[in-house]
Amino acid sequence: MQKLPEFGTDLALQATFRLVVLNESSSKFSTLADANGKSVMLEPFDFPGMNVVNQGADKPLLIIDSSHGGTSSVFLVVPGLDGRNETISLESQSYNGCYVYSGMSSIAGGKLSCKSGSDASFNQATSFVAQKGLSQYNPISFVAKGANRNFLLEPLFSFRDEHYTVYFNIQG
Which of these, 64, 91, 94, 139, is most buried using a 10 Å CB contact count? Predict the structure, then answer.
C-alpha cells in the first residue's frame, strides 16, 4: 500500500498481492474488465496462506490466516473510482460503500474507508493499478509451513537487495 518499489527488491515482495477469486475455476483474467464484479481475497505474496482482512470502517487492514478471514476478507473488484481505465477499486463485501484505502500519508499502510461524496483524493487513494505482480513465483519456489505462518522459500539469486549474509566454508 505504498509507492511502487523496484523489481527484484524485498519491497517488491511486500507490494505484490495475489487476487484469489472466489467460486471460479480459474483465477486468471485475460483483461482487466474480466475482473470487474468478481469477489476476491487478497493474499500477500510473501505471506502464503494469509489474507488481508478489514476490521471495519476507518480501521487498519490486517493480515491473518486465511482460515479465519470470513466475510471480512472478501472484496468486490469494481472499476477504479478515479475513473482511469487501468485501475480497480476493492469494495468490502461486509461494508458496502467502503473501499481499501491506501492513503500515501498513512504510515501504518492501508485501511478500509467509506465513501462520503465526490472527493478526488479519496477516489485516487482507493484506486489501484492492476498489473502483473512485481514478484513472480519461481518454478523451484515452495511454501514451508510454520507453526504460526507459512513461508515462501525462493532461490537466493532471485533477489537484489538481500538482508542476509551467505558464508562459504572453504577448506582445502
Answer: 91
Strands 87-92, 75-79: pairing is antiparallel
Q: Exposed, middle or buried by CB within 10 Å (0-12, 13-18, 19+), for 73?
A: buried
66-123 per-position pLDDT tens digit: 777 677 889 999 999 999 988 899 999 999 999 999 865 544 568 999 987 778 889 9
> If we measure between CA atoms, which residue out of 84, 9, 77 comes closest to residue 42?
77
The three three-digit cell numbers of residue 103, written as one number: 492513503
Residue 144, C-alpha cell as written in the block:
514451508
SS3 string of 55-100? Answer: CCCCCECEEEEHHHCHHHHCEEEEECCCCCCCEEEEEECCCCCEEE
Question: What rounded mean pLDDT belongs to the chain?
Answer: 78
Phi-psi region of 49 (alpha: psi -120 to 50; beta: other; left: phi over 0): left
Under a CB-based contact definition with an 8 Å cutoff, are residues 49 and 66 in contact?
A: yes
Here the cell at position 135 is 514478484
